[in-house]
Amino acid sequence: METKREIRKNALERRKALPLDIRREYSHIITERVLCHPFFQCADIVFCYVTFREEVDTKDIIHSALKMGKTVAIPKVLGENHMEFYKISSMNDLTPGYQGILEPNTEHLQDRIIPISPEEVDTGRNMEKLPVILLPGSAFDKAGRRIGYGGGFYDTYLYTYPRFRKIGLAFSTQCVDEIPVEEHDVGVDVVVTEQGVLRKGEVHADRTAE
Predict the structure, then answer these.
(1) Of the candidates 85, 77, 83, which has an alpha carbon nearest to the alpha carbon of residue 110?
(2) Mean per-residue pLDDT, 63-89
């Protein structure tokens, strides 16, 4: 089996090789799949990354979530392996931050969104309303295992706050048969690609993009 480093390198090379117009087309298909997914539909709060480099574009997902009246939270890097999510009302609330990635401008935004933690006891909570988090990644496999970019930000965050519905966004060229697992790795519940929705070893394609 390839190492995680090799899988990351090869997957990112394949992603980068996709022409811009193809990435835009695939991102549109993925967006439609996400907006129709029950995890997204049921969530009151959407935690979402902002696209950087050749990642699946999340701009329309963010706009749609805000238009639907959902709370939208965007990550901000605060230190080594440390990020937090802040509520935004529009893309105008973002400014270049870590490695040039758009982040919440915390000089003007003070609403840090703290999701459900394991310490919280709320037996009356409607489990269908759990927040959804949309994750980027360099590679995903059929079991929902994920390889990030090496910083460990999402693994650290999700280890602290595990009560999410987790959706990985990727182009199908980033999906591999198997990723080696380490103790600190946090996987996703589903992976949405332009070819369908991967969940626990199966592909559940819908007719959204046909």
Answers:
(1) 85
(2) 93
